[in-house]
Amino acid sequence: MGYASTIKVPFGPQHPALKEPEHFLFECEGDIVVNVTPRIGYVHRGMEKAFELGTYSHDMYLAERVCGICTSAHTTCYTQAVEELMGVEIPARARYIRTIIAELERLQSHSLWVGIVAHEAGFDTLFMYVWRDREVVMNLFEELTGGRVLHAINTLGGVRRDISPDAVLKIKGGLDYFEKRTKEYLRVIKTERTFLKRTSGVGLLKPDDAASLNAVGPTLRGSGIRNDVRVDDPYIAYGEIPFNLITSDGCDVLSRTVVRTEEMLESINIIRYALDHMPAGEIRVRAPKNAPPGEVVSRVEAPRGELMHYARSNGTAKPERYKVRAPTLANIPSLCKTLMGVHVADIPIILAGIDPCFACMDRMLIIGKKTNEKRYFTR
Amino acid sequence: MLAYDLFQLIVFPGALFLFCLAFLYEWVDRKFFAKVQNRYGPLYTGTLGLLQPVADFLKLLYKEDLVPKACDRNIFSSVPIVYVVLPLTTLFIIPISGQTGLVAFNGDLIFVMFIFALMTITVFLAGWSSMSRFSIIGSVRSALQMLSYEIPLGLALIGPAIAAKSLSISSIVQWQSANATWGLWLQPIGFGVFFICMLAELELVPFDIPEADTEIVAGWRTEFSGRKLAMFRLGRDLEIVLASALVTSLFLGGAQPLGLIPPVLVFLVKSLFVVIMLSFARALFARFRIDQMIAGMWKYLLPIAILQIILIQLGLGV
Amino acid sequence: MSLVGEALKQLMRKPSTLKYPSEKATPPPGFRGLPIWDMKKCILCVLCQNACPPSAIKLIGKGQEAKVEYHLDRCIFCGECVDACPVDAITMSGQYELAGSDRSIMVLCFGKEKPVIPVKNAP
């Protein structure tokens, strides 16, 4: 290994801390990281090209499969974009059902993340408990939509399944249990000394840096900046539902954890309000097959942050160009900034701290054979 | 007589018995850990998955044994054997089936401490010889960890020795049964310190820093596979037996006969209790960082251990 | 140490996991499992074939010989075919153990005469 002053520690593409193949090369002096080079592009799936090949109604299911955990955020974003292109107004009840599903998804995604961060800190028991109680939400999904992970409930022009009064009671029962458990885990997160030692003061991201490096979602809100698409640019039914925007100004992994956990509690309130105030009526209108020429950008607050879809149509049944900007991609620059000067032992927990979902964000990477020059296709 | 000695050494309470005990304790640990986490744990191999550790061991034995090109071959292939032999040897000292160990001698408590240091050095060599970045980080961490917990461990071991006025584990056990008391009641602080040190020695959460699986893959064990990994797992299981046996002997009265119950059963019950406590402790915490662990050990554990020694001396002086 | 109470409670509780191959979870009604064609109702309108995003459905033949060829390996279980069917001939069953290691046996045929024509040992 020679006698270089720095030692290069590779994380990935296969590493137990990363559940998806992505590569980070850390240069460490002793136990301190002095440089980090990310290399993305291992799981590029050619999704954007695939969008251009399918019709609008079939692309729905492709959008659902961009991410395995925020499936309904992607379909909400997709339907929003395409409905805007087609000029379709969806019924009010459908908007509420979409909101309920989106918030339920936030619950399962955030509790999944709390489990993962506990696991990265070596706190396996909390991980098991959180994931056990996450099953409540998953079972609700199974009941409501017929699928635990891929809900397939959003469709162009509305939603495919209605929420019956029976199901409303079931959701409320599930939420009561889940709320109790979430409060308990919030207590554990805030009081367990070993966990606090690993998370508080770790992975500092200053508010200026977070803003200038365009961090999104709970990473940004964990740095004390009020930013949430649900509030700033209300979509579906969020404009009609009162809720609080959660921020925390610890700027560290702990405050990101707290933001997510408190957001779960807030989501529970949103779902309760939406269930009580759900208007009656149609759940679906017919959407046309073709979209008139035009282009549209649609924004959604996915569990991981701001998600952006762009669509351009040329009057046929297929989009001419479709682009997805997943929240993880926006969080990578701030992540690299955060990783400077941390201990090697803290790398996994900081990496997990942005709730990475690498497959959603992966870009095509071309490496020049002779010059070893790298080019990412991000546009 | 020689035949009986050989039987004692190889079958009961020697190597074979200890191997069975190692597998049993691994099963207890996994099962209890799973129970705390609201899972089943091993279930299908044998009754209640009792044979799962054996099955894992056998499976690893005939898996492919990969040796990295860059490694130091001699050390790399000898370290796993040393890692099994060390705790096994030490277990012969500890009284299991009677009030004296198989090879008890005066001063074997020092020998135990020596073995603990040697085990860490073995671990260090294991990581160092495999020449992988993760292994080296892991082995350096394990050496650092030893530097921090070794002195409190030594002080906690000395406590019972001062009380019993002997450096032999067998005589400490005999002293406890003669005075009808346990080390735990006389020096609860020492027991706590020793327990924490054992968590660190066994590399259990919150001190599983050298092999933190989410940080450095498997730490010093990363490059080992097949037979060598099987040996390491067996060595780890024997270490758990050793730790629980030591806690039992020094603080819980050891293998005292209790009425008609043979001492070996008393020993088993007590040490099983220790294993359960270890596995409960590892379920409750998150992992420390190495610098936090070293600072904590020197700042808090060492003064507490010294305080215990002072208290013992005061108690004896009065 | 703030997890002690919770951890002690678990000792009295039954594990929340299932002993999977022997104990199986029953999916709720409305679960999107393996789709089944009722060929007595089917009017061979090809709407399901057109609605299917991954083109997992193929209609072959005419009249009494006609059959629906369903490719399990392509199916994404979205349920669009069920929505598209004008005569409700398609239902999604609760069957969910559909994984296999051989793509060639993952084709199911539903015929007019024989309700299900299994291909070798299809699930």
Quick structural summary:
The complex is a heterotrimer of chains A (379), B (318) and C (123). With 379 residues, chain A is α+β, with helices and mostly antiparallel strands.
Give a structural overview.
Chain A has helices at residues 47-53, 56-64, 71-86, 92-120, 124-145, 165-191, 193-199, 207-212, 217-221, 229-232, 253-276, 327-339, 347-353, 358-361; strands spanning 7-11, 23-29, 32-39, 154-155, 158-159, 294-302, 305-313, 319-325, 364-367, 374-377. By secondary structure, chain A is an alpha+beta fold. In chain A, the strands form four sheets. Chain A has a three-stranded antiparallel sheet, covered by helices on one side. In chain A, strands 6-7-8 form a three-stranded antiparallel sheet. Chain B is mainly α and 318 residues long. Chain B has one domain (66-317). In chain B, 70% of the residues lie in helices and 0% in strands. Chain C starts with a helix and ends in a 12-residue tail after the last strand. Chain C has a domain at 27-111: Alpha-Beta Plaits (2-Layer Sandwich). Classes of the chains: A alpha+beta (379), B mainly alpha (318), C alpha+beta (123).
